[in-house]
Write a structure and sequence with these properties.
The protein is α/β, with parallel strands linked by helices and about 325 residues long. It folds into 3 domains: about 5-95, Winged helix-like DNA-binding domain superfamily/Winged helix DNA-binding domain (Arc Repressor Mutant, subunit A); about 100-170 and about 285-315, D-Maltodextrin-Binding Protein, domain 2; about 175-275, 3-Layer(aba) Sandwich (D-Maltodextrin-Binding Protein, domain 2). The chain has helices at about 5-10, 15-25, 30-35, 40-55, 70-100, 110-125, 140-145, 215-225, 240-250, 260-265, 300-315; strands at about 60, 65-70, 105-110, 130-135, 150-160, 165-175, 180, 205, 235, 255, 270-275, 285-290. The chain is globular and about 70 Å long. The model has no long low-confidence stretch (mean pLDDT about 85).
Length: about 325
Amino acid sequence: MPERERRLRMDIDLTSLLVFRDLAESGNFSETGRRMGMSQPAVSLTISQLEGEVELVLLERHASGARLTPEGVAFLSRAQEVCEAYVGFKDEVKLQRRRMDGEVWVGIDGSWYSERLERSLEKEFSGKDVKFRCGKVTETWSRDLEAGRVDVVIASRFLQEGMTPGIQEAVMKYERGITVAWHPSFYPFDRDRFNFPEILRTTLLIPNGHAAKGFGDFLSYWCAYAYGSQAANTVKFESEAEAARAADAGLGVFLGPGDSMDRLGGLEHDLEFIRTFEFVLPEAYRFGVYCRADERAKDVMNIAGRIGRAGRKPFSE
């Protein structure tokens, strides 16, 4: 085949564009493999094949991962358009298929409340003619919800994080302020004269966005706005319990949204704690059920309503 004709017959696999986009964001072959459900060698091979097809070096490989070349930056700007259109098309097809089958996808975040409500849902819908599928969602659940990748989300959030005009909310639980906890053998804070800026010289141990959406972002903004500084170090954990255990070991100071110590009542620890900003943040932490604002599917609204009723029983004030 003549060289000119071969060039004109360029064939780019759409999946390879998605892999390239993710790798451009993560900069790490293993991380992209984990998120894309591929092995690290498979990611590397996919990128090599893409570069061979477009005849451009898109990424510079180095010991810790990869970074975009100038050609890669230009290529990514156009690839983004194709990826968004492709992903949007797939989401729409999946959504239409669910509507035809009468199936509802329920996403659940990693918060303490969500985990307990998930258990009660099995009893709530057991033996009933309801077609729904539960699965875990990441802290980007609001975008996934609006895109139609999931129909209903059970999640917690801090302040207005995650809310857009395209999402409606039914709150099951409100909580005030922030909990600060520390081990007195390592941090001699005075509960009666507690001064929040004092903890900024320590390592802050907090739940991540999967367990409390927006909490970490709020803390960063608050410290910069109110005190003109940030904590010496911040470590995020998959759950409040993990963060509290680290604080009990003297690794830092625990911060959690709302009344964290009430949720951690079954955890053995020697922590002292204080509730702070309760009047400034009266309903800051909330747990609820979320669906699209323009949702009209009866199956979805039925499931969302039943989840809300099931959740209000154990979590009502």
